[in-house]
């Protein structure tokens, strides 16, 4: 009997885009598009069970085995390094992790660089690779305010279009890493539901390739 695959989808626009890909790949679940307060949606015919969670929580559900697979941004995987398999780059949700600051900022290598960010580990690893001494200020929102109010020299944050930076007289200086949505798997699930997961990945990959042609 075909095993059900539990799929953790990120809430919001990204999750909608991810579901569209899964639907086109043959893993549809019509009830997910209905107006209701259900938290779990399943289709026994296609062998999938979906549930939507906060994007930053997807990797936790997958790592802990509540979900067999899920879709998380590369930023989450780099920041929290969950013990999961990264199976596929879906090529959606594209943006980049950048260092940004005031347009006239010039880095004085003789001084400790003050960096505001919510991506502490990514920031630490990036500057450690450059042997640059930094002081990190962890913020959870409105990161762009930090250099404007002289709380920090620069910020490390996700940049999609750059509009917010531009409107606040800031600019990106360096790209740390490109970001996109990745299909991830629980390690035990990949072993015990390998046939089902491998087939799903194959069909989703084919669908992604067609979308990107």
Q: Give the low-confidence spans.
A: none
Number of strands: 11
What is the helix content?
A: 25-40%
Judging from the principal axes of the Cα atoms, what is the shape? elongated
For the largest beta-sheet, the strand count, sense and barrel status come to:
6 strands, mixed
Walk across the major sheet and give the strand order. 2-3-1-4-11-5
Structural class: alpha/beta
Radius of gyration: 20 Å
Helix and strand pattern: EHEEHEHEEEHEHEHEEHH
What is the rounded distance between the termini? 35 Å
Report on this structure.
- By secondary structure, the chain is an alpha/beta fold.
- The chain is 32% helix and 31% strand.
- Strands 2-3-1-4-11-5 form a six-stranded mixed β-sheet. A five-stranded mixed β-sheet has the order 8-7-9-6-10.
- The protein is elongated, with a radius of gyration of 20 Å.
Reconstruct the topology from this structure.
Blueprint: E1 5-10, H1 13-24, E2 40-43, E3 48-53, H2 58-63, E4 69-73, H3 74-80, E5 85-89, E6 95-102, E7 113-117, H4 120-129, E8 134-138, H5 145-148, E9 154-159, H6 163-167, E10 170-179, E11 181-185, H7 187-192, H8 194-212
Parallel strand pairs: 1-3, 1-4, 7-8, 7-9
Antiparallel strand pairs: 2-3, 4-11, 5-11, 6-9, 6-10
